[in-house]
Specification:
- The chain has 279 residues and is an alpha/beta fold.
- The protein has 10 helices and 8 strands.
- Strands 1-2-4-3-5-6-7-8 form an 8-stranded mixed sheet, sandwiched between helices.
- Helix 5 runs antiparallel to helix 6.
- The protein is globular, with a radius of gyration of 17 Å.
- The protein starts with 6 loop residues before the first strand and ends in a 5-residue tail after the last helix.
């Protein structure tokens, strides 16, 4: 049982953003995936908050954060993230993003590179590269959109769908705890905002900016990830100068839930090595 070490707070504004916050020190922001929310990081907050001010957010339209009017521009997430940094009066932050969260971190760096200490990009990708099939996830854009939104267009209930689909992105032999935590977050999806997010993120790319990343960067991938396999990490390592790639064994797409001890050890070691740097 993880002892709760965080407090839940809100960043006022449009939209209002919900966050779990713990610890003191340099700001570290955890960014969840497209089917999750901040509860996905509850196995990380107690450990990382011993060394950093650790914040796990609900992105706009997720969890306790507000929904919003109109379509989504994927970079709206980055503009919200800038609000978070400003709220904590942080000139820079360490960013740790999984899947969609890793893409948000890459987009934020492209827009606001001067606000980033380090990047930990986990089970993610930058976009399609027509010159290298390793660059993208295993599904085509069309397959991804169809598989993610069709059930909800047909009236699926998020909690029922999460129970039915739970575990499909996890490695075989995953723990019941990893499954429970994954399902818990997916059960809380805001359907309309989720559909907007899937559509906005489907073809979004920052492949051309990989070569411009100059902050310390850690790439973390599960060895059995069915969506963004290790080859994606190898591609990103080749394109991000000086980046480090760690493959976590017996893990699928949710490395932080499936192998939390190995994940925490790898990412925390990287962050502690690179904190207090004058970048």
């Amino acid at each position: 049982m993880i002892k709760k070490s965080w407090v839940t707070s809100f960043l006022e504004g449009t939209p209002r953003i919900c966050m779990d916050v713990a610890g003191e020190g340099e700001l570290l922001v955890f960014l969840h995936g497209i089917g999750g929310n901040k509860v996905n990081w509850h196995l990380q907050l107690p450990e990382f908050s011993k060394h950093f001010k650790a914040v796990a957010w609900d992105a706009r339209g997720y969890g306790g954060s507000d929904d919003y009017e109109g379509d989504l521009d994927f970079s709206d997430f980055s503009r919200d993230l800038k609000r978070v940094l400003d709220h904590f009066e942080a000139e820079k932050a360490h960013l740790c993003g999984l899947s969609m969260g890793g893409r948000i971190a890459q987009d934020f760096y492209a827009l606001f590179p001067e606000r980033v200490f380090t990047l930990a990009l986990c089970d993610t990708f930058a976009g399609d590269d027509p010159k290298d099939v390793r660059a993208s996830r295993s599904q085509s854009i069309e397959e991804f959109v169809e598989s993610r939104i069709r059930p909800f267009l047909n009236g699926a209930n998020p909690a029922e769908h999460a129970q039915k689909r739970g575990g499909t992105l996890l490695a075989p032999g995953h723990s019941e705890d990893a499954l429970r935590r994954s399902v818990e977050a997916s059960s809380q999806l805001h359907v309309e905002s989720y559909i907007k997010t899937v559509r906005a993120s489907a073809s979004f790319t920052r492949v051309d900016n990989l070569k411009n990343i100059s902050v310390p960067t850690l790439l973390v991938f599960g060895d059995q990830d069915p969506l963004t396999p290790p080859a994606v990490g190898e591609y990103m390592q080749e394109h991000i100068s000086g980046s480090e790639l760690i493959i976590i064994e017996k893990a699928g797409h949710m490395t932080n839930l499936e192998q939390p001890a190995a994940f925490n050890r790898a990412v925390l070691s990287f962050l502690c090595e690179n904190r207090n740097r004058k970048l």
